[in-house]
Amino acid sequence: MGRTVAVIGGGYGGSAVAKALDSDADIVLIDPRDAFVNSAASLRALARPDWAPNLFFSFDTLLTRGTVIRDRAVSADPVGVTLASGRRVEADYLVLASGSSYPYPAKPNAGSTATGEALDDLRQTHKELIDAERVLIVGAGPVGLELAGEIKEVWPHKHVIIVDPAERLLPGFQPEVRQDLHRQLDELDIQLRLGTGLAAPPTTEPGQAETFTVTTTGGDEITADIWFRAYGVRVNSDYLADGRLTPRTPQGQVPVTETLNVHGYDHVYAIGDVTDVAEAKMAGYAMRHAEVVARNIISQLRGEQPTAIYRPLPYPMILLPLGRRGGVGQLPTPDGPAAVPATTVAEYKGADLFTGRFAKQFGIA
């Protein structure tokens, strides 16, 4: 068998597996963007546009031997990938790492595939946000909470309100994590409206400054000057819709084995958000997937049986910054999940949002 590995998607998992295999295989990394996007930093880049260049790492420095093709996969089959340009990439191994989409500004706009375009979007939205005194965030998951924290750190005087139909923040996490989160949100004067949604969306577009009033499903009115959508993840797997490679779940995900092989194949793998692994879809998990897949493909290249297995954690983990110094976290320990203080969240994530880690990965540290 040959040594060509086609990796579809250059996000957290795809970039990591391509880098790990670069010296052992002939890597072809396929992504429509010109750079890796450290999406964990997107919300800070919105609040601090001078910091925004830290969000992007050019693919030019990722691989020593491999090739990066800036194009979009439109179909995949057991022996290769067809691209939007009509180009065909034949491969001995496939890694599906196409990730997911999320409403801007948590991830760049889908149409802004060039770094310069994405930076322009962030600068323009920042200008809209500057004079907006009242900010509405729809969605109280990690994205909405982090966005509120970044806004409050730069503009403590802004009135920020978060609305979500869910009754509780961070369900499934330790009670002390949720309690600490509520305490910090109170200290930041971030208002929560849980257990209620919006009767209708705002009449203005997200990220555009214009005063509006909405009514909640509970009958309350909220007036704000700008709003952001912080919900609506979508798995990027349209290129599998023709069924030439594998069926998908109703959520658009791909069934995988414990070795992260796509069911029915020993040379096709999937990692990250596109998998049906029963866990939260987070960057940290995608990078753990990448380690397993890289080990298995290296074993196969050496003529050995792949033995690396991925086992999801039995409980969720999270590092949720609220600005550079605040936030809550839950990490695994030998005794089970444990809450960690804001200082630990800042040390591991909040201070630089992993930019140091990716600077090393892309050879620019």
UniProtKB/TrEMBL annotation:
Keywords: FAD, Flavoprotein, Oxidoreductase. Residues 4-277 form the FAD/NAD(P)-binding domain. Pfam families: Pyr_redox_2 (PF07992). InterPro entries: FAD/NAD-bd_sf, FAD/NAD-binding_dom. It comes from the Bacteria. Belongs to the FAD-dependent oxidoreductase family. PANTHER family: APOPTOSIS-INDUCING FACTOR 1, FERROPTOSIS SUPPRESSOR PROTEIN 1. This is Pyridine nucleotide-disulfide oxidoreductase.
